[in-house]
Structure formats: structure tokens, C-alpha cells
Amino acid sequence: MKKKVLIVLVLISMMCIIGISYALWRRTLSQTDTNRITADCFEITLTNEKDMITLENTFPLYDEEGMQTTPYTFTIQNKCASYASYNINLELLDTVTEDNRLDPQYLKVVLDENTPNLLSSNEVVEPTLSNAYASYELTTGYLEQNEEKTYNLRLWLDENVTLNDPVVGKSIIAKITVTANYIDHIPTDYEKCVSEYGEDSIQCSIIANVDTTGACPTVNEDGTVNVTSSEREKSLLCSALDDYGTSYYFRGTPDNNWVKFAGFYWRILRVNGNGSIRMIYAGDANVIDNLDNKEEVLANGYDDGDTDYTQIGTSAYNTLANDNAYVGYMYGATNASTYEETHANINNSTIKIVVDNWYKTNIEDKGYANYVSDTIFCNDRSLISGTGVGTTIADYNYAIPTSAGVNLKCVKKMIVLL
After folding, report:
1. 335 — phi, psi (to 5°)?
2. DSSP code of residue 98
3. Cα Rg for the chain, rounded, in angstroms?
4. Tens digits of per-residue pLDDT, 113-138?
5. How far apart are CA 73 and CA 76, in angstroms?
């Protein structure tokens, strides 16, 4: 395989002082290192052209605050005639004496809107720069020919830093290195997944089992998938487009798509197009683990006559039903004069309040919220007939599982998960 390597350097200088406390970032772009092979067809663009960003009177930040800071933005673009894989690392330079270096364990880092993590928790890789004493891998990926990708990098002092920590007067000087490798084949979805999430990730473990026998239903041009009754009996992992990209969904009768998270069992429905995992509640692990028929309950997801393990409780969808507004998981104004006012996402339905309260108690309050992704929920309120206003009669779109196509996009059909 013909291989070229491009190193793009971005200088970041960061000084952190607690008390008077300020942080200084310096950034320059250099592509003139004589000991690096460069390629004209791979480019990096600094879309934030400021040479310096000064943050005055800054203190350790909570993640929510850190995510609101001004990002360092850069764009990479592949103009070559083949695919390119790339690595983005943060390399710490020995420009700062060892006694004056800020320990990476006190820094939070995040690219784009991912979950922030301590810089020191990133994978340690071999530095590419001769004057670097440490290198942390931030992300990897692939670019198609002429594809570009923009990243937003944020760094801040971890919220847990105190005056007792050795940070006063400490600083780091680091360079972002972007290494591009030009490859001679189209990467598989599994290769792309490993590049982004790692070989041991749940997402990639699932995608590795995508059916290649041709037994999966054909995806139509409009995104729907026609599923026959005989196909429903097979246990397969198939793919279809959703609102984020390519989704991988379980269909038929799988019995191995289970995960234990936050003290509960969940059944994996699919990997969304953005890499997040869509799951459905399947019971309290403390209860199910003590059942004599645990494996049967998990495999079939049914109650034993006394307990329905797969639900958190019972509730009305909405306690009122005398207005078209109440068909919504969220809804607008009752007795409104327009469809838009009626179906605006303003008020929570009865069932949403129940689910939100359960989530706060069992997920958020127990510190698991950082592992939960905010993705689209489809509550289809598109009309077949009527105005959808007030107490007038209206028919709304719905799915017919026995004959209609399955569509994972939020369009004029409800989502049906197999």
C-alpha cells in the first residue's frame, strides 16, 4: 500500500494560575518542518484566525461551563484521489521545564460535542515530534476524496482542581499533530467504527456482526424497508439509513442483544447513525438476576404472570384527551386556532413527566447522565385528514407492521423497531 504521512502542527500554549487565575492559549500553524513529508492534496485550515486567546480570571470549570468556552476550530480536508485515514494527537513539548509543567491529569479536553474527559485518560501514543515528552490520541477517522471535517477543540481546568493541587504557576506548551495516511481501499463500516470508537466498543462489536448473506431486507430508495412475515423469524443485524447516517438494527428474533447499565437490563435495538446506541428498558437487574428463569425472561422479554419486568410502571399517555394537542409526547396550546400552536413542543405529556422523573432518580441522580446521548425521538403528528386543531376530528399517520415498510427516519411514518 502506497503510504504518505502529513504532519500538521498547531501550537497551543496554555498557562493556568489559580487565584488571580488566567489561561493563555497561543496557536500557530506550521507546515514547514523539514523532517516531515508533506502532501499538497491534504490540507488543514485554521478557521479561527486569532493568534492568541486570553481568558482572564478563569477558574476550574464544570463540564457544562467548559463546553461553553470559545473553541479552537480547525478543518482538515482530503484533496487526494484516494481515501485517507488520520490521527489527531495532542503532544506536550519539553519547552517548559519539568518543574513548571502542568500535569495533564488536571486538564479536561473535548472535541466537538463529545463527552469531556481528562486529557490523561486518552490513549498514550508515541510522539511524532522530537521535542515532545508525551502524546495523547484525541481521535482518529477516515476522509473520502474531497471530504472535509471541522473540529472544535476545548481545554479547561477540571472542576475538581483545588488550591492544594500543584497547578499554580504551571503551564504546558503543546502541539496538535494531524497525521494522514493515504489508503488504497474503501474502508468498511467496521473499520470506520473502530477508527472512531475503538475495537472494544459496543458499537463496533455490534457492527462486526452485520449480516452479509443477503438475507436482510432490501432498503428502498425512499428509505423504507419491506419486511415479510417469514423474514421476521430470522435473527439478523441489518442496516438502513436514519436521520444521522447509517443505522444498524436488530431484527427478527435475536436473543443476544442485551446489556446491563446503571443497575438495569436493556435490550439493544440499534446503533444510531451517529454512533449512539438505542436501547429499551428490560428490567431491574437486582430482580432479574435472582430469578430462576432469568435467561428465559431476558431472551423473551415477557412477564411471568405476576410481574412485567420490561416496564417501569403504568401511566396514562395524557390524562386529558379532549383536544388534538394531547396526541403529542410534548404539545402546545389547547383550543388553539392553528396546527402549529396546537402541536408546539412546549408542555410535557403525562407519560413524559413519568419517564423524566424515573430518569432523574435512576440515571441522572446516580451519575450516569454523561453516558446518555440526546438524540431524536419521533412522535409523528403528521396528518392524514383534518386540521389537527382543537376538538375537531383528525387522522394521524401510523405504521402498519404487517404490510407497511419500516423507516428509521422521522418522516411521515412512525418508527417501527424490529
Report:
1. 55, 25
2. G
3. 26
4. 778 889 999 889 999 888 889 999 99
5. 10
